[in-house]
Every structure is written in structure tokens, then in C-alpha cells.
Design goal:
single chain; 416 residues; alpha+beta; Aminopeptidase; Alpha-Beta Plaits; 2 domains; six-stranded mixed β-sheet; four-stranded antiparallel β-sheet
């Protein structure tokens, strides 16, 4: 890496510009399925600055922004990836979630924690390169994707579109001291129980689907998964019953309680380790549910993967576990540039707990043959009776610097 080019790039990293961009992103609500306003904002942002912009329609009316700072040719390409969809609002928020506020080294606002802080960092890393006047040999792609919280809909679509880079970094908010190369897999499923309806005045012949589901939920606590334990992820696999709905008919009518509910559905999440398969997970679950059915002729259940389309925002895709070799060029490039910026080696490379207990878009990149890792600014989620969350501004700045130098480093090397 040319030292003067590195200094030129770092000189273009502007803390206030990073905070301003992250604040602008906070102001645009972008729950899953509703990311298009952010996509058009970013398309204008990049288009005004000379990037090649691809506004991709992932689903009818649902867009994501892929911006490319085109190289001169002859160097490896790098993707900086971040998602524009945000988590649902919880009931304990105390601040206006759409009004960004700065307090010391903290930037508050809903969505900044997952992951508009990291999204601002990758965008401003590319901007630091562009503004410096340095021309990279390889392309630098900034992928602002939708639906990561659905299982990676946007990145999956991007891979199906045929775009490939030689390496990638996903800026999930795990702290700039952590280079995460290992994470869990995730599968979501619906489990249904079926009943026979009737009026409360005559219960004979009825079967209450909600009551039957209580036995299913209790049995799920006893699932013993078949797997090879991982020392670096000792608490996996895990199963969680995340939601339950029961009522009358296929639409779960909730306002006729004199009638016995004939359908109940739970949405179940399983986080699993490398080596497990969805088929094996379902078999493990059936091993505890089938005996219930044998003992109770009135119990009827079914497992559905993915959950029904009628559940808005359902997770359609399985996210496979990730295990990227620590000696991969992109991992080593981020590590050495982290040390250049911070003066210290990374705190951790590999599985970093508890962050590795979840999954993210790296799985789709890795499955498409792109070596990748997770590296992004730290956030703090609400505590003490409130859910207000914030990103650490100094970590956004450090992340921006490290990823800008990483782009300069890898995109100007000899072709892979």
C-alpha cells in the first residue's frame, strides 16, 4: 500500500459527515418490506457522486441500492455489504425513534443499532476513497441490501443476479475489535395444531387447537438435537418459540371466543451449528412431538418450512452456518488495517460470543464463493427499563478508516 495514498484516504474520513449520513438514514423508517424510501435516498446519494448505481427491484415495488466505484482494471474487487431493513420497534422506547440525537460518543435513533451505523460506515469508507482521488484497480461495490432480518432476501437476490466480487466485508455491529468469521445457522418454521370448532354451549366433539398447542410448546423444551458440539459455540443449538396465534379458521379470527379455536400456529426459530441440517433438525423435533400424537388421538400437528406467506415479513430463506478460514486474504487484510488504524491487533478473530450465536448475510456471500467476514462498529442496546439503543460514534469512524484502507489495500493488489 502506498503510504501517501493511505494518508490521502484517511484525510477524507470526516466524523461529522458519518454522523450526518447515519442520522439521515435514521430519519427514514425502513422496516422489512418497507426499505424502498432508503433505497431511493441512497441511489440519489451515490448517483450525485459518480458511482455506477443499480437500483434493484427485489420484489415488485421493493428496491435495494448497489453502488460501484469502478476500478481501472487489473485488481481484485471488494464488496462492502450492509442491510437497510431494521428491527421492529419494541414498547419500551422512550425517545422519538426517528429523531437522531448525539450525546457524547453516542448516536441514538431506531435502526442505527442494526445496522444503519455500519451502513453509514461502509458508505463513507467508499466516499473516503473516492474523495481522495485515488483510483483503485479493482471495483469497490457498496451493497445496501434489503431483508437481512428475513434471512437475507436482498443479498440472496444479489447473488442470483450474478454479481460477484473477490472478497467482501459485512459491517454488522459487533465492534471493531472483533473480526467474526464463524456464526450459527438459522431456520424458521411454523408448527400448526388443528382442532374441531363448536360453540361453548356444547363442548362434546370439539378439539381446542390452542390447548393442544400448549402440549407441543412444553414438549419443544425437551428437544435433544443431534449434532457435533463446537467448543467455540458451546450454547448452540438453541430453539425458541417466538410467537403464537390461535383462533377460528384459516385467518385466525380472534373476536369470537365463544367458539372453540380450530387452528393454532407457533413460529419457531432454531439457531444451529455447522454440521446440522434442516432435515435433521425437523427429525429431532418430530422425535418429541410424534409420541404426543401417539398418546393423544385428538392431537394433529404439522411442521411448515418456511412459515406461510400470509405472515408478513416471514423468514423464507435458511441461513447456513459460516466458518471462514482465518487465513483468508480478506480476514488478514482487515486485521492488518485494523492494526494500522488503532495501533493494536484485533481483540478476536473467529467465533466471537455472543455475536456468533446469530447469522447474517455473510452466509449467502460465502455460499456464492466469496470469502468474507463481519466487521462493524459497536452498538449498545437499551437497558434499565428502556430499549433506546445507540451506536458508538468513534467506532463508526474507526470502522470507516479500516474499511477504506482495506479497499485501498486489496483492490490495488495483483489479480487473484
Amino acid at each position: 500500500m502506498d503510504p501517501q495514498q493511505a494518508l490521502n484516504v484517511l484525510s477524507q474520513v470526516d466524523e461529522q459527515a458519518i454522523v450526518d449520513l447515519a442520522s439521515d438514514l435514521i430519519k427514514i423508517p425502513s422496516f422489512k418490506l418497507e426499505e424502498t424510501p432508503v433505497a431511493t435516498f441512497l441511489a440519489d446519494f451515490f448517483g450525485d457522486k459518480g458511482y455506477k448505481v443499480d437500483l434493484q427491484e427485489v420484489e415488485p415495488g421493493r428496491f435495494q441500492t448497489i453502488a460501484t466505484l469502478e476500478g481501472t482494471g487489473g485488481g481484485p474487487s471488494l464488496m462492502l455489504n450492509g442491510h437497510t431493513d431494521i428491527n421492529s420497534l419494541t414498547r419500551r422506547w422512550r425517545r422519538d425513534p426517528w429523531t437522531p440525537s448525539v450525546e457524547g460518543d453516542r448516536l441514538y435513533g431506531h435502526g442505527v443499532q442494526n445496522m444503519k451505523g455500519g451502513l453509514a460506515s461502509i458508505i463513507m469508507a467508499a466516499e473516503a476513497v473516492r474523495r481522495s482521488g485515488v483510483r483503485l484497480k479493482g471495483d469497490l461495490v457498496v451493497a445496501c441490501v434489503v431483508g437481512e432480518t428475513q434471512g437475507g432476501e436482498g443479498t440472496h437476490f444479489l447473488m442470483r443476479s450474478g454479481l460477484r466480487t473477490d472478497m467482501a466485508v459485512v459491517a454488522e455491529p459487533f465492534g471493531v475489535g472483533n473480526l467474526v468469521t464463524v456464526h450459527a445457522g438459522i431456520v424458521h418454521m411454523a408448527i400448526h395444531t388443528y382442532g374441531v370448532t363448536g360453540h361453548i354451549r356444547q363442548l362434546e366433539g370439539t378439539v381446542n387447537a390452542v390447548e393442544k398447542m400448549t402440549g407441543v410448546i412444553d414438549a419443544l423444551r425437551r428437544v435433544a438435537f443431534t449434532y457435533q458440539p463446537r467448543e467455540d459455540m458451546p450454547d448452540l443449538p438453541r430453539l425458541n418459540v417466538g410467537s403464537v396465534i390461535g383462533g377460528l379458521g384459516q385467518d385466525y379470527v380472534l373476536v369470537e371466543p365463544p367458539y372453540i379455536p380450530d387452528l393454532c400456529t407457533i413460529i419457531v426459530d432454531v439457531h444451529f451449528v455447522p454440521g446440522q441440517t434442516v432435515e435433521g433438525i425437523v427429525a429431532d423435533i418430530r422425535r418429541v412431538l410424534d409420541p404426543l400424537q401417539d398418546e393423544d388421538p385428538e392431537l394433529s400437528y404439522a411442521i411448515e418450512i418456511p412459515p406461510p406467506e400470509s405472515f408478513k415479513g416471514r423468514r423464507r430463506l435458511v441461513m447456513d452456518p459460516l466458518d471462514v478460514p482465518r487465513d483468508s486474504e480478506i480476514v488478514q487484510a482487515v486485521a492488518r488495517n485494523h492494526q494500522k488504524v488503532t495501533g493494536e491487533p484485533p481483540k478476536a478473530i473467529g467465533a466471537v460470543l455472543p455475536y456468533s450465536y446469530t447469522a447474517n448475510d455473510t452466509c449467502h456471500l460465502w455460499n456464492a464463493g466469496i470469502p468474507c467476514l463481519l466487521y462493524g462498529p459497536a452498538v449498545v442496546r437499551g437497558s434499565g427499563g428502556e430499549d433506546d439503543s445507540y451506536v458508538i460514534i468513534s467506532e463508526m469512524v474507526q470502522c470507516t478508516k479500516v474499511l477504506a484502507l482495506t479497499a485501498l489495500d486489496v483492490c490495488n493488489t495483483e489479480p487473484l
